[in-house]
Amino acid sequence: MHVSYINLLAAAICRSGSWRSIGIRATSYRGLCNSPDSFEKISTIIRDKCENVVVMAGAGLSTPSGIPDFRSPKTGLYHNLQKYKLPYPEAIFDVQYFIDNPMPFITLAQELYPGEKYRPNLGHYFVRLLHEKGKLLRMYTQNIDGLERLSGIPGEKLIEAHGSFSTASCIVCGDKHDPEAVKKTILAGKVHLCSCKGYVKPDIVFFGEQLPGKFWLHNLDAIAADLLIVLGTSLEVHPFASICDAVPYRTPRILINREVVGSLGLRDLDHVLVGDIIENINKLAQEMGWLDDLIALQKDNENA
Ligand code: OAD
User: From CA 202, how far away is CA 285, in angstroms rounded?
Assistant: First the structure.
């Protein structure tokens, strides 16, 4: 009994792609969707009615920066992995597969290493602006591209739930390694080896691995939040996706994404902006009277 409880708990805290948002799909959403009215209502909520915003983000936040997402048909990374000859697309982030064949991840990591060629976009700066206006309680991101950090969102406000390239460890003995040395090896197309001969990988959370301890802060943040904003994610991967269901019913939730996902749209206080994230954030910022601040923030950060 005790052992199976522990196993259950371990399964719950490990990253999994198979859990769905308790089977709910938002096929008919009640929230307002892309009418001029919806921009007005959402902007009033953000500008005038909230002080503790929790943001959840996924790969759709970074596609405007030129990084493909994972699951979009045709353009998503998982649809374009033929060259790696993977048994199934998610294998690229599977620890067991990495032990057998690390090269697909190494090749992908060369492309994705933060600070090499991609820059934050208006969506990242919108979240930074929430912080500048004193409204950001926390941003939870699944992204490993480091663009949130580059946009200037401070570390204490940011939870990189699927890890990052900023630290690295041996997958066998757990020893920490100099991230710059690991980066150099990976950019040279090789696997970094530990003194124990185990492979070293950047601390990106692979399927079957535990999320960083900071992620569990969401249990408190979800209760303290007076608004949840969900940006550019399919909400397919748990436990990350479950944050949006942990937020109480009295808390408004706003989804900005190409399509309706998870349970978003099923609650009376949900609002859904379907379409391109940058277009919608642009319109929203304009409606809120924040557009000049947003553009200035982006310019200042890029020139710094
Ligand atoms: P997905 O690729 O599953 O979902 C991205 C979502 O963003 C989809 O709903 C897209 O329609 C939407 N989207 C893409 N571009 C957009 C745009 N310009 N405007 C609006 N919406 C847009 O990515 P995630 O939900 O982040 O693991 O996937 C979760 C995890 O699965 C990732 O963290 C990744 C993967 O295994 C790691 O990186 C380690």
Answer: 36
Q: Is the CB of 231 under 6 A from ligand 1?
A: no
Q: Please report the pLDDT score of residue 112 as a whole number.
A: 85
Note the CATH architecture for domain 29-64+121-162+214-303: 3-Layer(aba) Sandwich (3.40)
175 three-state secondary structure: coil
What pTM was estimated for this model as a whole? 0.90
Superfamily for 68-117+163-204?
A: SIR2/SIRT2 'Small Domain' (3.30.1600.10)
Q: Contact, 61 vs 173, CB < 8 A?
A: no
pLDDT of residue 155: 96
CB within 8 Å of 235: residues ≥ 6 apart: 21, 58, 241, 244, 261, 262, 264
Write out the residue limits of the CATH 3.40.50.1220 domain(s) in the chain: 29-64+121-162+214-303
Shortest-distance Cα residue to atom 36 of ligand 1: 90
Cα 76 to middle of ligand 1, angstroms: 8
SS3 state of residue 199: strand
Surface-to-core class of residue 286, CB atoms within 10 Å of its CB (0-12 exposed, 13-18 middle, 19+ buried): middle
Q: What residues does CATH 3.30.1600.10 cover in the chain?
A: 68-117+163-204
Q: Residue ranges of the chain with pLDDT lower than 50?
A: 1-14, 17-28, 30-31
Cα of 141 vs centre of ligand 1, distance in Å, is 11
* H-only helix segments in the chain: 2-13, 36-44, 95-100, 103-112, 122-132, 147-150, 179-187, 218-224, 243-246, 277-288, 291-303
Q: Which atom of ligand 1 is nearest to the CA of 63?
A: 15
For the Cβ of 162 lying below 6 angstroms from any atom of ligand 1, the answer is yes
Q: Is 162 a catalytic residue?
A: yes
Q: Is the CB of 165 under 6 A from ligand 1?
A: no
